[in-house]
Amino acid sequence: METQVTQKGLDAYWMPYTSNRQFKADPRMIVGAKGAYYIDDKGREIFDGLSGLWTCGMGHNHPEIAQAVGKQLSELDYAPAFQFGHPKAFELAERLTELTPQGLNRIFYVNSGSEATDTATKIARAYWRVNGQPTKTRIIGRAKGYHGASWGGISYGGIGGNRKIWGQAMEADHLPHTWQPSQAFSQGMPKTGAELADELLELIALHDASNIAAVIVEPMSGSAGVIVPPEGYLQRLRELCSQHNILLIFDEVITGFGRTGNYFASQTFGVTPDMICSAKQITNGTVPMGAVMVQDDIYQAYMAAAGAAHNIELPHGYTYSGHPVACAAALTTLDLLEKHQFIPRVAELSPHFERAIHTLKGAQHVVDIRNFGFAAGISIAHRDGDPAIRPFEIAQKLWQSGFYVRYGGDTIQLGLPFCTELNEMDRLVDAMGDAINSVS
Ligand SMILES: Cc1ncc(COP(=O)(O)O)c(C=O)c1O
User: Fold this and answer.
1) Which of 253, 255, 259, 292 should be mutated for ligand 1, with most atoms under 8 A from CB?
2) In this predicted model, what pLDDT tens digit does every residue of 115-173 receive, in sequence order?
3) What is the pLDDT of residues 170-214, one digit of tens each?
4) Index of the ligand 1 atom closest to the CA of residue 251
5) Atom number in ligand 1 closest to CA 114
6) Measured between alpha carbons, how far is 327 from 78 in angstroms, rounded to an integer?
7) CA 182 to CA 192: how far, in whole Å?
C-alpha cells in the first residue's frame, strides 16, 4: 500500500516529540496493525517492540474491543461527565478497585498520563488545604522522571532540557535519580542504591515537610530508559513519606496493567502509595483514557470538608472524563487481560527476556542494560559528544529490518507486547545486536 500522504499534508502536521525535518524527509508511515506487528505503507510487517508507546500490551486490533467500541457508539456516544453519569463509568470504577492495591478505592477519570499526574498532584495539594494545612504545596519529583507534557508534568518531572526550553513553571524540587554506575548490567532490581531514598530527608530539611504536599515517582522509570528501582528503595521512600506526612504518588502510566507481571508495579514491588496514576494500557491504547486511583481517606477528607451536599467537593475534571467509549474499551481490555492471562504470562516469560537482552552485553557501544518484566533499556556510548545520534541510527536500522523500538537520549527502550513469543524475543535481540554493531 503506497502512502497517500501529500507534501502539503506532511508540511501541515506539526508532529509531537518528533524530529519533524528528519521524519518528513524520510517518513515512517504505519497504516495497519495486527497482534504484535505493525504494517507500514510498503506492506512490511514490523515487530512492535514498544507496544505502541507502552500502550498496546495485548497486541493490536482485538476484535472484541472494536465490537465494544462500535456498540457503545451506537448506544450512547457521549454523556456529560459533570453532574450526570452513565453506568459503564461506575462499572469500570468498581472493576478497577478490585485490581488496585488495598485502600485505593476511589477512581478519578482523565484522558491521558499528563492529566493523570496533574490530577493526582492537584488532589494532593487541595487535600492538605481541606485538612487545614494549606502551606503543603510543593511537589517533589525525581531527576529523569517523566510525568507528562503539561506545566505540572514538566515541573515535577525531571527530564533534562525542560527548564532550558520552558523556564520555570510550578514549584517543585527533585530527588536524585536512582541509577548509579555500580548498578551497570544489573538483571532486574539493582542490589545497591536504596539509600538514595534518604535524599528526601535533605529536601525536607531544606523546604520543611510543612511545605511539601507529595512525592511523585515512577516506580520504574520508563521514558528515562527503563531505570529499575533498587531493592528496598521504594519501601524506604514510603516510610519517609508516612513519617513526615507527605503523600506518595506512584506514576504507573507505563507500569500499570501488566508491564511488571502484576496489574500494578506497586504490587510487584510490595509498596502501596496514596495514589496511582494510570493511562495507556487501561484501554490497550485504543481510546485515550487514564485513571487516578486514590486512597479512601483522601476521598473522605474531601467529602467531609465540602459542607452542603450540593457543593462540589473537587472542582476539577475534563469534558471527556469517563467517556462512554473509553469505558467500553477499558472494560473489554480488563476482560481480555483476564481471559488470555496476559499478566501471568509476562511474569512467566520475563526471565527468558532478561537472559536474551543481557546477551547484548559486550556488543560495541553498549554501556548498560536494564530490565524488569517486559521492559528493558539499553544505554549507548555517546559519539562526538552527542548522546542521541547512535540510538537514533540504531533505531532507524531496526525499522529498516522490521523492528520498531523507541530511542530517547542515549538509550534504546523496549516494552514488549505481552503476547510476544519466545522466538520473537530472540529475533528482536539478534536484530538489535546487528543494528548496534553496524553503527560507527
Ligand atoms: C510515566 C509517565 N507518566 C506520564 C506520561 C504522560 O502520558 P501522556 O503522554 O498520555 O500524557 C507518560 C508518557 O509516556 C509516562 O511514561
Assistant:
1) 253
2) 999 999 999 999 999 999 999 999 999 999 999 999 999 999 999 888 889 988 899 99
3) 999 999 999 999 999 999 999 999 999 999 999 999 999 999 999
4) 1
5) 11
6) 11
7) 8
Q: What crossing angle do the helices spanning 342-358 and 324-339 adopt, rounded to 10°?
A: 70
Q: Which residues of the chain have pLDDT under 70?
A: 1-3
* Ligand 1 proximity of 112 Cβ (cutoff 6 Å): yes
Give the neighbor-by-neighbor strand order of the sheet with 212-217: 104-110, 290-295, 275-278, 247-251, 212-217, 138-142, 172-175
H/E stretch holding 31: strand 30-34
CA–CA separation, 77 and 21 (whole Å): 38
**Would the CB of 114 count as within 6 Å of ligand 1?**
yes
Which amino acid does the sequence have at 64?
E
367 torsion bin: left (phi>0), alpha (psi -120 to 50), beta (else): alpha
Q: Which three cell numbers stand for residue 295?
A: 486512597
Q: Ligand 1 atom closest to Cα of 277?
A: 3
Q: In what order do the strands lie in the sheet with 375-380?
A: 366-372, 375-380, 411-415, 406-408
CB 251 within 8 A of CB 145: yes
Q: How many CB atoms lie within 10 A of CB 250?
A: 32
The strand pairing partners of 142, in sequence order, are 175
Find the 169 Cα to ligand 1 centroid distance in Å.
18
Look at the pTM and tell me if it is higher than 0.90: yes
